[in-house]
Specification:
By secondary structure, the protein is mostly helical. The protein is built from eight helices and five strands. The radius of gyration is 17 Å and the shape is globular.
Length: 199
């Protein structure tokens, strides 16, 4: 079994809450759930199946939701001792915040509800059905512009633009070349098995 990056989902949730406060923004619980869902999906894609946090997302009528966090945040921010997530998780969380953090909770809900992982889970089991990590990886890890798998059933009003690819979400790190010129770098990832691009 592969190790999960963060010890608890609270570590990630409160990292996002504090990141929003750094930008003088109150992070609504619904928005927090959508950002965490996207972080879990893109982290799994980036690490080939490793979870960012020990969390299970379900298809709630309002959008993807983590039930444990929902219960814990019902009466406001809970007092929980947290630990900073590992650096690679923080880098991805920062990228998620920069890519999606400016959007409203309503926009992120509409966006994620229109994507196949949520649509398929909701169509197959209704409210409370688990959105599997594999379904998240299959959709968010596909090449942008490629045709996603067909949803098991349409949901009224659940059309959304397709999700950006991993390289559009991950903020590249800036390092310096030997001449001092700033260059963007990303972690090298081998191509998936079966990728038949020319060498």
């Amino acid at each position: 079994m592969r190790r999960i990056a963060a010890d608890t989902c609270f570590d990630v949730a409160l990292w996002l809450v504090d990141r929003a406060l750094d930008d003088n923004e109150y992070l609504q619980p619904q928005k927090m759930h959508r950002l965490m869902y996207l972080a879990q999906a893109y982290y799994a894609v980036a690490t080939r199946g490793r979870k960012m946090m020990p969390a299970t997302f379900v298809a709630d009528p309002s959008g993807p939701m983590e039930p444990t966090l929902y219960r814990a945040f019902e009466n406001g921010r809970p007092y929980v001792e947290t630990r900073k997530p590992p650096d690679d998780a923080c880098q991805l969380l920062d990228s998620i915040w920069r890519k999606f953090g400016a959007h409203s909770a309503e926009h992120l809900s509409k966006l994620t509800k229109g994507h196949p992982p949520y649509r398929d889970a909701f169509a197959s089991g209704g409210a409370g059905e688990e959105i599997t990590l594999q379904a998240m990886m299959d959709y968010y890890g596909r090449k942008p512009g490629s045709e996603p798998a067909a949803a098991k059933g349409p949901l009224p009003g659940a059309t959304a633009p397709e999700a950006p690819g991993l390289t559009d979400v991950l903020r590249p790190r800036v390092m310096r070349s030997q001449t001092g010129k700033p260059v963007s770098v990303q972690k090298w990832m081998p191509r998936p098995m079966g990728d038949k691009r020319e060498e």
